[in-house]
Amino acid sequence: MKNIKKDFFGNQVLTDINFTLNEGEVLGLCGENGAGKSTLMKILFGMDVIRETGGYEGDILIHGEKAVFSTPFDALKAGIGMVHQEFSLIPGFTATENILLNREPRKTNVISQVFGERLNTLDRKAMKERSDAAIDKMGVKIDPNMTINEMPVGHKQFTEIARELSKDQLKLLILDEPTAVLTEHEAEALLASIRNMAAQGIAIIFITHRLHEILSVCDKVVVMRDGYVVQDVPAKDTNVPEITRWMVGRSVQSAAATQIQDHSDAPILMSIRHLWVDMPGEIVRDVDLDVRQGEILGIGGLAGQGKLGIPNGIMGLYEAGGTVVFDGKEIPLNSPRKCLDASLAFVSEDRRGVGLLLDESLEWNIAFTAMQVQNKFLKNLLGGAVKWRDEKAIRAVTQKYIEALQIKCTSSRQKARELSGGNQQKICLAKAFALEPKFLFVSEPTRGIDVGAKSLVLDALKQFNRESGVTVVMISSELEELRQTCDRIAIISGGKVAGIRPATDSSEELGMLMVSQVV
Amino acid sequence: MKKNHVVEFLRNNMVPIMFIIICAICIYLSGFSWSYLLNQVVTRMGRNIFLILSLLIPIMAGMGLNFGMTLGAMAGEIALILVADWQIWGIPGVVLAMLLSIPLSVLLGLMCGKLMNMAKGREMITGYILNYFMGGLYLLVVLYMMGPIIPIKHTSIRLPRGFGVRTTTDLSNMRQCLDNQWALTIGGVKIPLLTFAIIGLLCLFIVWFRKTKLGQDMRAVGQDMEVARDAGIKVERTRIISIIMSTVFAGFGMIIYLQNIGNFPTYTAHTQIGMFCIAALLVGGASVEKASIGNVFLGVILFHTMFIVAPKAGQNLTASPQIGEYFRVFVSYGIITIALVMYEAKKRRTRSGAGALLAQAQQAEKKGGETA
Amino acid sequence: MSKSQERLGQTRFGQLASAYGLPRLIITAFLILLFILAPFSGADFATQISNVIARFSWNAVLVLAMVPMVHSGCGLNFGLQLGILAGLLGSTLSIELGLSGGACFFMAILIATPFAILFGGGYGLLLNRIKGGEMMVATYVGFSSVSFMCMMWLFLPYSNPTIVMAYTGVGLKQTFSLENFYANVLADFLKIDLSSFGINLIIPTGSILFFALLAFLMWAFLHTKTGTAMTAVGSNPTFARASGINIDRSRTLSVILSTWLGAVGILVYQQGFGFLQAYNAPLNMALPAVSAILIGGASVNKASISNVIIGTFLFQGLVTMTPTVMNSMLNVGDMSEVIRVIVSQGMILYALTRKTEGSK
Predict the structure, then answer these.
(1) By the CB < 8 Å criterion, does C223 face chain A?
(2) How many Å lie between the alpha carbon of A412 and the closest alpha carbon of chain B?
(3) CA dist., res. C41 & res. B349, Å (int)
(4) Structural contact between residues C23 and C347, judged by C-beta atoms closer than 8 angstroms
């Protein structure tokens, strides 16, 4: 029996990960976002990021021997193949060409012997044979001569897998959420082919949020949480509720929000009906949601399930449809300006891309939106014909927020790019606060910022809500954060609202909702 | 269904079809005889096709229209000046010039490729500006370095002041030496068989090259650099090789072009060559990301037919020969503009449409739910 | 990033170079060298200065025309020819109307304005469809419109005998003198001429004031609400969109402004130069303006008024000083053209191949 054993003793992100995987075994790996799954796989696959960020501790043992991968190519040589979430295929090439990309069988000729082997001609016949063999191994039928851009999504996924299978030395295949983009039918075919491949002696690590898939194909289940392996059990001994509990359960059950307020009597401020949003990777389907005046509503859910699509769609950054009624009036969708005019504000999860003018001063960043939308910080010259920037007012407001939010900067003239992530986030909040909105969407406010800044940001939000009476909808991947800050929590799963619970509900219950309709 | 095919065909080949119509009208207006026209077109095919073929490889590697081919043309010119100074004429002169141009072209191509790698996504404008830049260096070489640094002796080449090259480089002893070899005259039309054979050889090479590993890598890099890199293809290197190949072929092409004409304005011969070659290729139905040998041939025929007949047609129509000159320049620029606009617009048009599908799916779901 | 900064910071020269831009430093040093060498080459220093200032006054507005488009993120305006064509239409029509002097000049601006708005509007709409690929398309839009107008100059029914071709009587002349129209109308306003004191220094005050006025208006515009929005669009279009800005409108406005400034710029150029050049002459007007603003320290997505002033001065200094100084020093014939081409195109190449900072 060949043993594949991995021990990691990393700090913080991953701590004391140990598990073994045997030949022909299928291992289901699950855990919330940020539990450390991807980091673990990146280490296993020798990705550059790991080395650039200081490497890792511990050992990976393949057949009892220590293996060190400094690049993905080393990992490939050792027989590890990985299918990433994003397709890595050349659109205009056929399945065959993609399967054998850069590993094409070649024929030598006179010219290549003079000028080097890159002038060898491709051996089309051998290519076809090898790709056919790989496709057969998978046990699914796809047309090897079809070009990728003509294929349905499922076939692209299979092409990716076939590419890994066509590598002779393949021993371990990592599938990172391969079913996320597939239809139910395609997913079933994929599961069948996983069994098929395992039967041929290939070990498989299968990462997915669809827990029932894990139960149906895997031999064993490894559950990760906060960088630890919390469970490692044979699949037949467990069930979906149990896995969910392991995924979300905290070792130390943190208290829910200290001061939850019940707003069930308050009037409905925003009512969302049949909302769809075409945000790539965060598609929203037919969402109905009511937000009450003065509350902090949390929106949670796993990555890719559509929670981010809701604010982005309503605020007009991605194409959306349906109806949104705010304060008794319907807001036209697909128009950021109309939303801002209606006194809505949005702090985007994409700080650097959407939230900030990185190359401009903090003053500009904070004042710009309010200036453009509400004509604040402007002086009217020549009887209003010229709207002149009021630098003094801009400086004053910037100074005010720098103090209020304890933004660390050299001056209000500093470029936004030069601030740390946490301070950048505070600038984004200040920008929204400067609008003095009635309603605020905050998307992933604590993503990528350190612990100290985190609590400051959350406190600022809470204070903003409680003192100014502004209704806040906060979208976050971190359930605990939602429980600490919000009054109610809506869980989005599969692009739809899976349920709305008071923040006092336990993590387990919310966790169950998270995986309930995963697509 | 069949009608759709026709519409599709028309849409895909709009540019060549438009050109055929323009040419037909101009031929009618110009009143040239067919044998004259045919003679001219065949001559120009022999003259130009090799140059235009040099554009194909960078397109394959996704680097767009290689405005930097002018660098190859400069290399060819310098080689010709040297060969002319050494008084080596005829076919040996042409062959020697080609050999001489290779190291120059490789060097220039290497530089061009490196710069383009530094400006990914802006290859075309970089190549275009590089032309002007190298044009300046070229002037420095032919006007000031030829003489003191690079020995130039012959008085027919050297400027009377003692260094630098004359405004016009005379190649009359080399004129059409390739074209006249094995030339065939059918019905008054001279067909330069040797030149065509060389062109045929390059075509064969390109067809064969597409089947090689390097060719496949270039196609992969051209379609998606990141994926190709992940698969272990050396993206930067592959791109540089494609530019070097293009530059070398452009150098050969320029030599073939100039031996046909028999002399060239030393300082400016290369300035417009890139533009006309690119326009001809696009007229043949190529786009920024896709071009075939067929496009080259069709393009040369159509473009040069227009070039020959437009001034005369303009003169017959408006009594001003100028108008035709301006018209053909306008068409060349216009066609490049259209191709570039279509290419850029297409790059940006991929997104929309998905939303509508989503709304539809939701509608369908709702209906399904109601009936159930 | 931080490491490279540290390394640069180790030397004072490095610091200076990174703040000022290495190529700009070299060009400035070269220009200073030329000024020092000028007296030795036998050229009159004051004449040289006068030449540089005069050329500056001709070209500065054309360089200023680059600013709006760079600000809105449309990149360098390689299609400046469109503005120049609008300017040519303005000047020829104004002359055709029989005006002369200052009236003719200002009428030319007035007539050019609707053309600039029309051309710029269409050009802006086109550029909005090809975001990210503006520069290459702009180049060829410029070229094809110039060649289109070449035909129009032949066809348009100009009748003023001083501007139509002498032998046929139809079609515009290639080049004609503006002596009787508006040559030097700006330059002669408040002109400072020290030649009576034995110093060959002439300062075309009016032209410089006119440029200063336009530059001030540009500066002021960038301080208004609309101007601020335009800068934000260039800095981060997604941010601007999320802040409710209509990106396309901002960009189109910037293109129209650029085009109009191009039109006024060519008129100012003509009044200084004293001649009007039609047909293919505008073809090569865009690149010098582009390289001038880059030499002034602008990048593909950032430009300021000071970039315009410094850039025009350096570039024109180079153009005017090199022939006199280099030629008399080296005695090798006219090398200035070669140097001008290498410097200006090299500068554009440098800007294009530099990794663009900022989000895109």
Answers:
(1) yes
(2) 34
(3) 59
(4) yes
Which chain A residues have a beta carbon less than 8 Å from that of B230?
A: 72, 88
pLDDT 10s digits, C273-321: 888 888 888 888 888 899 899 888 888 888 889 989 999 998 888 888 8
Q: Which domain does C86 fall in, by range?
A: 62-284
pLDDT tens for each residue of A27-59: 888 877 667 777 788 888 877 777 776 677 777
Q: How far is CA C334 from the centre of its chain?
A: 24
Using a CB-CB distance cutoff of 8 angstroms, which residues of chain B are in contact with residue C248?
none
- List the single residue in A with minimal CA-CA distance to C241: A336
- Are the beta carbons of C228 and A364 separated by less than 8 Å? yes
Residue C267, in any domain of the structure: yes
Residue B322 counted as domain residue: no
**Which of C236, C238, C245, C304 to mutate against chain A (most A CBs within 10 Å)?**
C236
- Is C249 an interface residue toward A (CB < 8 Å)? no
Instruction: Report yes or no on C260 lying in a domain.
Output: yes
Residue A249 scores a pLDDT above 80: no
CATH number for the domain that contains residue B147: 1.10.3470
Residue B191 domain-assigned (yes or no): yes
**Residue at B141 is within a domain:** yes
Q: Residue A359's closest chain C neighbor by CA?
A: C358
Of B202 and A351, which is predicted with more confidence? B202
What the block records as the tokens of B311 is 């001034």
Q: Tens of pLDDT along A95-129?
A: 898 888 888 888 888 777 777 778 888 888 888 88
Task: Report ipTM for this prediction.
Answer: 0.80
Is the confidence at residue A254, as pLDDT, over 80? no
DSSP A389-430: E-HHHHHHHHHHHHHHTT---S-TTSBGGGS-HHHHHHHHHH
Q: Which pair of structure tokens corresponds to residue C123?
A: 């050009």
Query: Is C3 part of any domain?
Result: no
Residue of C229, C238, C245 with shortest CB distance to A354: C238
Residue among A365, A386, A428 with most chain C CBs within 10 A, to mutate = A386
Cβ contact (<8 Å) for C244 and A352? no
Q: Does any CB of chain A come closer than 8 Å to the CB of residue C159?
A: no
Q: What percent of chain A has pLDDT over 70?
A: 93
Q: CA-CA distance, B191 to A111, in Å (whole number)?
A: 31
CB atoms B232 and A102 under 8 Å: yes
Residue A384 contacts C where some CB pair is shorter than 8 Å: no
Number of domains into which chain C is organized? 1
> Is it the case that residue A446 has pLDDT exceeding 90?
no
What is residue A441's predicted lDDT score, i.e. its pLDDT?
A: 93
Neighbours of chain C (3+ CB pairs under 8 A): A, B
Residue stretches of chain B with pLDDT short of 70: 1-3, 348-372
- Report the Cα–Cα distance between both ends of chain A, in Å, rounded: 36
Closest partner residue to C133 (CB to CB) among B137, B323, B344 is B344
CATH class entry, domain A268-343+437-514: alpha beta
Q: What is the DSSP string of A260-298?
A: ----TTSPEEEEEEEEEE--TTS-EEEEEEEEETT-EEE
Residue ranges making up the domain that contains B233: 41-302
Collapsing DSSP to helix, strand or coil, C202 comes out as strand
Structural domain count, chain B: 1
d(CA A112, CA A116): 5
Best of C129, C146, C353, C355 to substitute, by most chain B Cβ atoms within 10 angstroms, is: C353
CATH 3.40.50.300 fits A3-79+169-248, yes or no: yes
Is it true that A3-79+169-248 and A268-343+437-514 share their CATH fold? Answer: yes
Q: What is the pLDDT of residue C81?
A: 92
Residue to mutate among A119, A121, A123, with most B CBs inside 10 A, is: A121
Q: Is residue C299 part of a domain?
A: no
Average pLDDT over residues A347-374: 89
